Amino acid sequence: MRKDSRLSRVLHVLVHLKMTEKPVTSDKMAEMLFTNPVVVRRTMALLRDQGYVQSTKGHNGGWSLTKPLTEITLLDIHKALGETSVFTIGLTDEHTNCPIERAVNTALKDVMDEAENLMLKRFGEITLDILGKEFK
């Protein structure tokens, strides 16, 4: 199963935007992330829709922050990306009539829900400025 690394990749980009303090093109971000500029534009558009970044066209254009990193949390970005779960672990639903499958799913779901709630709470406590402090 492939890991969803969008959150960590977007956090990487946002800290770079702060450190460069000038607009960065989708092409440049794509090089940095080893991906396609179209993927970058789609992802950044999600952040733009939430008011975290803006884009400018033309010479010296690109993406830039609209809010200081001190006002953006990991949870904000997680939500902006439309993430539904922090885990890639899934429950099985192939044998819904089986009492053993139901018991296993209940146990796993309870533990994963508890862990996810704790993780999301912690995400809400961490602002993005913390991520770049050691690089000043």
UniProtKB/TrEMBL annotation:
This is Rrf2 family transcriptional regulator. PROSITE patterns: HTH_RRF2_2 (PS51197). SUPFAM superfamilies: Winged helix' DNA-binding domain.
